[in-house]
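@channel sequence for tomorrow's demo:
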Amino acid sequence: MKSMFVRTMAASAVAAIVAGAGWAQSQDGVVKELTVNSEYTALKDSNAQEYFPTLATDLMTSIADKIAMTTEEAGYVVEVNLQEVRMGDSMTLPESREFNQMDGVVSITSPQADAGTESYPVKIIAMDPEIGRAHV
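structure tokens (generated this afternoon):
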């Protein structure tokens, strides 16, 4: 259950970043290309890839459902680099396959030729509302 919550929140956070960056500069800010990469060493050293081999695809699908996409050249290019999936302080997930944290970076390239790429760190942690700390 925690894992699904964290994945949903990660997709929502990325969608919010994309929407904020896109619509802050343009009324028609849409994404023409979306990629999610999970090929980082930290993930390879974890069992997250083994437990969730389609995590990058699942996350990309969830993000795409929350943002405006286009086939026009005048769209933003968004790259999400998923760097860590954890359960508390451990990169090794338990046999229950639960995790409560995802870390990564979202990079957004504007369709304007003179604009650079903007990058935003994203850290999603499932918190226990009763005790105000990470739900482990």
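heads up for whoever presents: The beta strands are 31-37, 76-86, 101-109, 117-125, 127-128, 133-134.
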